[in-house]
Write a structure and sequence with these properties.
By secondary structure, this protein is an alpha/beta fold. The chain is about 40% helix and about 15% strand. The protein has a single domain, classed as TIM Barrel. One of its GO terms (molecular function) is oxidoreductase activity.
């Protein structure tokens, strides 16, 4: 079992994210994951730095811990040629410690360039073409590509690592899970859905299976739930909402009726390890073997201490219940 830490880029400035990555390495985490957003989910979050600059700084400040985007949409706001170059550079700067996590994106971040927001079928087709372009460019040399949605014209990534970085593909349904098996090296999800793992493996996927595990550590349950509500209530809206709303103000409105009590069933919370481990067990039972812990509590350093003292050992030895 590999354990990672989710850097909450929407709630912290870039310097603090680098500090947390260094702290996560010291606490024994295997990897750090960072979202690639233009906007935060909520106005109250107040931050959303450029992920690729943060990754470069983390690569320079750390020695062992691996880096993962969770996740990048490689089309609309970007072109996949740019992501192919960015990922290759990050892999070089981190001495091969980088994994490129990709997905079909959210309107929240992609609409800002004024190119519209396609329906899900179109986004999935664009994701497939993006992966084909990235793989093509990583072969080296000048490359061109003409797809239904995307075009690459006589492009070359000059600085390539000897081994391309692995690609983890985010899946919210069986179609994208099969895409992860076809063109990815790993699966990435945010819910303990055994059906997604089954779709991935049945399509031939045999790589790591990443999932984000929601936790909120605090000295008492009420403080933990209040913090989880403040930071992560947007997550309770579900992916069909999360992918479609255009701005933080819309998420503020969509979550107005969500209370701290609503966070109880989703988040491991409070001072004791048992509840946090029970939430993680759901993901392990669903077939995931790379757990990225979300810290929605009010004390980041307190969470790192809690992890090292009470969670690290049990999580590493966690196995699916028979």
């Amino acid at each position: 079992m590999e354990i990672g830490y989710k850097l909450f880029a929407e709630a912290h400035p870039p310097q603090e994210l680098v500090r947390q990555a260094v702290r996560a390495e010291a606490a024994g985490f295997d990897f750090v994951e960072i979202s690639d957003h233009y906007h935060p989910w909520l106005e109250s979050h107040g931050h959303s730095p450029f992920a690729w600059s943060v990754l470069a700084a983390i690569a320079a400040a750390t020695d062992r811990i691996r880096l993962v985007t969770g996740v990048t949409c490689p089309f609309i706001r970007y072109h996949p040629a740019i992501i192919a170059q960015a990922a290759a550079t990050t892999a070089l700067l981190s001495d091969g410690r980088f994994t490129l996590g990709v997905g079909s994106g959210e309107r929240l971040n992609e609409h800002v360039v004024g190119r519209g927001w396609p329906a899900i079928a179109g986004r999935q087709a664009m994701l497939r073409e993006s992966l084909e372009i990235i793989r093509l460019l990583w072969l080296g040399g000048y490359r061109s590509y003409t797809g239904t949605h995307l075009v690459l014209e006589d492009a070359r990534v000059f600085d390539l690592p000897d081994t391309p970085p692995p690609i983890a593909v985010a899946a919210g349904g069986p179609g994208s899970a099969r895409l992860a098996a076809d063109l990815g090296d790993a699966l990435f999800t945010t819910e303990p859905d055994a059906g997604l793992v089954a779709a991935y493996t049945e399509a031939g996927g045999d790589g790591p299976r990443y999932a984000e595990v929601p936790m909120a550590w605090a000295p008492d349950d009420d403080t933990a739930l209040a913090s989880a509500h403040e930071k992560f209530r947007f997550g309770l809206t579900g992916w069909k909402v999360q992918s479609e709303l255009p701005n933080p103000a819309n998420f503020e409105a969509a979550t107005a009726l969500i209370s701290p009590e609503h966070m109880k069933d989703t988040f491991g919370h409070g001072p004791g390890a048992a509840g946090h481990l029970a939430v993680a067990q759901k993901f392990v039972d669903a077939g995931f073997d790379h757990l990225a812990l979300i810290d929605a509590g009010p004390d980041t350093d307190g969470f790192f201490d809690f992890y090292a003292a009470e969670l690290a050992g049990p999580l590493r030895h966690m196995r699916a219940d028979s």
